[in-house]
Write a structure and sequence with these properties.
The protein has 419 residues and is an alpha+beta fold. Helices cover 53% and strands 16% of the residues. A 6-stranded mixed β-barrel has the order 2-3-8-5-7-6, surrounded by 4 helices. A hairpin with a 2-residue loop joins β2 and β3.
């Protein structure tokens, strides 16, 4: 078998029907290009939606849960130890929401190698007072340095910065909706009134915009020391802890360990966002189904084009076999043509997909509710480009193999007699 001669004949066949060869290559090109574009764009959107929620969500949240005691006084009596006790309308016991021994707990948690950091918080219901207007809301006292290190708080500050909040104990970052309702802005002043009646006058040093109206219309941030002063509590007062891990997959077992070790409520990110994770799984499934459908449609298109391409070469096949070429050599010639079309179509498809993805990535996408997003999100994962190119080769191989195998078994006498 003279491969050089077979490549020469295959090249002659391709260039003798150059228009059909280009159409066959374009079938591969558009199939691969659309697969890459759809995959990078849809996974980019999925990643954007995930980040909007998960970036601001701690991997583990520790807090003191308010609720009825697990064991009621009757269960401690030996007189009823063999009886079934049923107590109706149990009310939560009177207890503080502060976390006992918070400083030592924070040091213990930070010592775990899986833990990236711990951000303590002091949260409370408050009234925002500006003139004659009072609004219900929530204030979160944060360790500014630790909070900005672990969570992208600064990315959601549309005016001002977190630096002023760290330096000034009389500063506040207001939710964008709160500031709008109070008709105030940077350098304005707002009074916070705690549930116990304590009142603080604070200077607005930043506006927070998360894109979620239920948060922006109520939430504000102050220095953790300011929150303690508002509530009249000591320097060790903490109501919750937000834990960030290096590996999010370890959140569930660590949450269980912390809950048992510290006798505290610990909620991992998977439990807190169970419904969101379900939505993410459905979106990913839709992405995969659409992508695979594009590849299958492209594969059938490639097969049809190559099949017609070989059918038009019936006379050439008969002549080749009549002049001494074996069936295997004829098959090799058409496989070379199919793989050549696949390679050039795959390369051009990857370039087309990359070009369209770059175009989408530079298309403006600016809305007020998402200040951190300026263009449409695209996921330039090399895996999609590799999958697209490999598919072009595999699809071209099978699309060429079936008709080429038929050509190998063709009897030249029957073809020439029919002609």
């Amino acid at each position: 078998m003279d491969l050089k001669l077979l490549f020469y004949i295959a090249g002659k066949h391709i260039f003798s029907r150059l228009k059909q060869s280009i159409i066959a290559a374009l079938g591969v090109t558009f199939g691969v290009g659309m697969f890459i574009t759809m995959s990078t764009f849809m996974t980019g959107l999925n990643t954007l939606l995930d980040d909007l929620t998960l970036n601001r969500t701690p991997h583990i949240r520790l807090y003191k849960e308010v609720g009825p005691s697990a064991r009621q006084p009757m269960s401690f009596s030996t007189a009823y130890e063999n009886d079934l006790l049923v107590v109706h309308s149990i009310k939560p016991k009177q207890q503080q929401i502060r976390i006992a021994a918070a400083p030592s707990m924070i040091r213990s948690i930070r010592a775990y190698p899986e833990v990236r950091g711990v951000s303590p918080q002091v949260s409370s219901q408050v009234f925002y007072s500006a003139g004659a207007l009072d609004l219900n809301g929530v204030v979160a006292g944060i360790d500014v340095a630790e909070e900005t290190r672990l969570f992208p708080l600064q990315d959601y500050i549309v005016e001002g910065s977190t630096n002023a909040l760290e330096r000034d104990d009389n500063a506040i970052i207001l939710g964008y909706g709160v500031a709008r309702k109070l008709s105030t802005g940077i350098n304005g002043r707002v009074q916070l009134v705690s549930p116990t009646g304590n009142r603080l006058s604070l200077k607005v040093v930043g506006l927070y915009l998360s894109g979620l109206s239920e948060i922006d219309d109520t939430q504000s941030f102050v220095n953790i020391g300011t929150a303690r002063r508002l509530l009249g509590e000591s320097s060790s007062y903490v109501t919750s802890m937000n834990v960030k891990l290096y590996d999010i997959e370890k959140a569930l077992p660590l949450a269980k360990r912390f809950a048992e070790l510290f006798n505290i409520k610990a909620v991992d990110i998977g439990t807190a966002n169970a419904s969101f994770d379900t939505g993410t799984s459905i979106r990913n499934l839709i992405t995969y189904v659409v992508s695979v459908t594009l590849l299958l449609v492209a594969g059938f298109g490639i097969y049809n084009i190559l099949n017609m391409f070989i059918r038009e070469k019936m006379n050439d096949i008969a002549i080749l076999k009549a002049t001494g070429f074996s069936g295997r050599e004829v098959k090799t010639i058409f496989m070379i043509q199919a793989m050549t079309i696949g390679v050039f179509g795959g390369i051009s498809g990857v370039l087309l997909g990359w070009g369209l993805s770059v175009l989408i990535d530079h298309t403006p996408f600016e809305i007020e509710q998402l200040p951190t997003i300026t263009t449409y999100p695209v996921n330039f994962d090399p895996a999609y480009f590799i999958i697209g190119f490999v598919f072009a080769l595999v699809a071209s191989f099978f699309a060429g193999y079936l008709p080429a195998n038929k050509a190998m078994k063709m009897d030249p006498v029957d073809v020439l007699r029919g002609k």
